[in-house]
Amino acid sequence: MRVTRTFLAVPANHRRMVESAARSTADAVFLDLEDAVPQGQKEAALLGAIEAINELDWGQKSVSVRINEPGSGSIETEVARLLKSAPRLDTLLIPKVEQTGHVDSLVSMIDRHGQHRTTPIRLEIMIETALGLANCEQIAGHSELIESLHFGVGDFSASIGAKGVDIGLSHPAYQLTSRSPQGDCSSTALDMWAYPMMRILVAARAHRLRAIDGPCGAFRDADLTRALAIKAASMGFDGKQVIHPCQIDATRSAFVPGDDEIRDARRVIAALVEAEKEGRGAVQVDGKLVDYANIRMAQRVIAMSGR
């Protein structure tokens, strides 16, 4: 799998911002032709994306382009020109995928326009509507070209009619309120996005895909950026979209296990290796039972660390 702990979004029609993205420490960048680009700038954005992919030094980054949504009048032109003229392009990020027919349409376009590529283009799928979430399991397993699912939290919020305009944040009124035996009411804040995030994550894992969380719109709030990244990483996501380079470090750190976590994972693995020598499949570590399920969890920690 690609390492895409930080997936930086940048409008393709702003060359200076694209150059900054290429210099950044993000693991992956997507050049946007969709929501970040006004309708009158779509053609300029497509041309800018192709030029930037060919002219800039992207290093080891994964480079993607978010094309316009399935059914839009420009999508086949975008796919054809990108596949023909941008050989460095790694993936296409497809917004607002709602059904397997959208995947079929993209695969057909790739078959028509991508035969000359030395490496096949891959697809990254954005789940960002109610219908897309309802069909995400079928979408995830529909094509071998798909390698990830992304949660488009902003458009998803609009799709279900949720209150609020802050991308990635729960509305403060979304709470569980209960009354104590003494008659006092107390409220506990809830996470509006736990259900769609977990469903997308499970669909991705069921089909061996990466799972990428949507961005924190409050990009200048380092605490919120870090907290939402920690939540996604704790759930099991592989990475998170960011909309500004200032979010990269805080977001990456959430997806890289700390030294204590790595040490504990290695202790668990070592303890079970010793237990196996004695014919046992479980052992106690610090008063806790450790078996092969713990080993798989520990191996995930080691893999995330890159060590």
SSE inventory with pairings:
Elements: E1 6-11, H1 15-23, E2 28-32, H2 42-55, E3 62-66, H3 75-85, E4 91-94, H4 100-113, E5 122-127, H5 130-134, H6 136-140, E6 146-151, H7 153-160, E7 175-179, E8 185-189, H8 194-206, E9 210-213, H9 222-235, E10 239-242, H10 248-255, H11 259-277, E11 283-285, E12 288-290, H12 292-305
Parallel strand pairs: 1-2, 1-10, 2-3, 3-4, 4-5, 5-6, 6-9, 9-10
Antiparallel strand pairs: 7-8, 11-12
Helix pairs in contact: 2-3, 3-4, 9-10, 11-12
Write a structural description.
The longest helix is centred in the last third of the chain and has 19 residues, at about 260-275. The protein has helices at about 15-25, 40-55, 75-85, 100-115, 130-135, 135-140, 155-160, 195-205, 220-235, 250-255, 260-275, 290-305, and strands at about 5-10, 30, 60-65, 90-95, 120-125, 145-150, 175-180, 185-190, 210-215, 240, 285, 290. It is globular. By secondary structure, it is α/β, with parallel strands linked by helices. It contains twelve helices and twelve strands. Helix 2 packs parallel to helix 3 (about 75-85) and helix 3 (about 75-85) packs across helix 4.
Beta-strand proportion: 15-25%
What do we call the CATH topology of the largest domain? Answer: TIM Barrel
Low-confidence stretches: none
Number of helices: 12
The CATH superfamily of the largest domain is: Phosphoenolpyruvate-binding domains
Largest beta-sheet characterization? 8 strands, parallel, barrel
- Give helix and strand order, one letter per element, not per position: EHEHEHEHEHHEHEEHEHEHHEEH
